Amino acid sequence: MKRFLKYAVYYSAALLFIIFNLVLLDIKYEKPVEEEIKPKIVLISHVYANPYWQQVRLGAEKAAKERGVIIDFQGPDTASVEEGIRLIKMAYAAKVSGIIAYVQDETRYNDVINKVIEGGIPLVTIDSDAENSKRLAYVGTDNVEAGRVGGREVIRQIGTEGKVGIIMGGKSVKNQIERVEGFKDYINSNSNIVIAAIESSDSYLLEAELAAKKILNQHPDVKALFCTSALDGLGAAKAVKGLGLTGKVKIICFDDLPETLDNIEKGVITSTVVQKPYLMGYKAVNIIMDNIEGKTTKGLFITDVLVVDKENLDEFRKQQQGYYSEIQ
User: Fold this and answer.
1) Residue of 165, 107, 174, 124 lying closest to 146 (CA atoms)
2) How many other C-beta atoms can be found within 10 angstroms of the C-beta atom of residue 67?
3) CATH code for 40-141+276-304?
4) What share of the chain is helix, strand, coil (3-state, %, to 5)?
5) Helix (H, G, I), strand (E, B), or coil: what is residue 200?
6) Strand partners, 40
């Protein structure tokens, strides 16, 4: 009897061992659940760290969450046509689902944009266009008209006589050229204002400050500075404060960075032409996804601008807070 019990224990243990290992093998070789592969859209900015482009990124990521797509946000560390084109080529070689790209120099971007489209990848330009390329759509400001808005605001602030200086975020950058073009067109048609100097910051804060100081030191009779990119106004504000010219030299700039609005409140910046970067990013992703899903969406999608000054600053901030809380 004891021998029987001994063998029974051995056999039971062996059986349990075999069953346990079979279970382990079944778990080990269980067919993995396949994860859905989401489309990837590459968003290529002007300069990666520029705060304006972080707003574009937020809008793109909001739309991406809604449409089930991944955003890969990229951009040069410094303003560079070559690097911008290289990033488009890399995205194309990686066979991403779509590309949203800022255009610095239309003539140099057209070929690579056309190649992407001909290769079957949808590409949308944002903030600065390449209208002579085969891009599907452009999302952003009418930059010539925005320049005219800036010209109208300068005349409102200093009248129809006097000298102004211009600081632009790159003398070879398309949307910056267009804003200056619109500005010149408006003041030439509606005033006797003279442009004393045009300097470039390449969209860097320090360079904008140095450019403003150069203009004001060389032309002490300048009444206003017109600044065409987001960081130019902040650089000009630093220069004006440093030279003790707050309130004496008007600053009309672009965009609604928190520091820009703070400087309006303090009376350093006179007014700013506000664009809609969040909406640009949001709309661009939806255009790409519509095309991927078979709904052909092409053409111009122009976002409007608003002039913000001390008079409407509080109301604008309230609207801004409500808008961002709604889209979170």
Assistant:
1) 174
2) 17
3) 3.40.50.2300
4) 50, 20, 30
5) strand
6) 70
Cα–Cα distance between 105 and 127 in angstroms, integer? 12
**Of residues 146, 157, 137, 303, the one with CA closest to residue 229:** 146
Q: How far apart are CA 84 and CA 45, in angstroms?
A: 8
Residue 27, pLDDT score: 46
Q: Classify burial at 312, counting beta carbons within 10 Å of its beta carbon; exposed 0-12, middle 13-18, buried 19 or more.
A: middle
Note the pTM of the prediction, 2 decimals.
Answer: 0.83
Distance CA 172, CA 46 (A): 13
Going by pLDDT thresholds of 50, 70 and 90, the confidence category of residue 114 is very high
Q: Is 200 exposed, middle or buried (0-12, 13-18, 19+ CB in 10 A)?
A: buried
> Are 35 and 65 within 8 A, CB to CB?
no
Grade residue 9 by pLDDT with cuts at 50, 70 and 90: very low
E-assigned strands of the chain?
40-44, 70-74, 98-101, 123-126, 137-141, 163-168, 194-200, 222-227, 250-254, 271-274, 299-303, 306-309
Is the backbone of residue 267 left (phi > 0), alpha (psi -120 to 50) or beta? left
Instruction: Record the tokens describing residue 197, joined without a space.
Output: 């100097």
Contact at 8 Å (CB) between 232 and 168? yes
* Local structure of 239: helix, strand or coil: helix
Residue position matching structure tokens 């944009």: 113
How is domain 143-254 classified at the architecture level of CATH?
A: 3-Layer(aba) Sandwich (3.40)
Q: What is the CA radius of gyration of the chain?
A: 28
Structure confidence at residue 324 as a pLDDT band (50, 70, 90): low
Q: Do domains 40-141+276-304 and 143-254 have the same CATH topology?
A: yes
Mean pLDDT (the chain) is 91
**Rounded distance, CA 275 to CA 257, Å?**
11
Residue 77 sits at the vertex; the CA angle it makes with 42 and 272, to the nearest 5 degrees, is 85
Domain boundaries, the chain: 40-141+276-304, 143-254
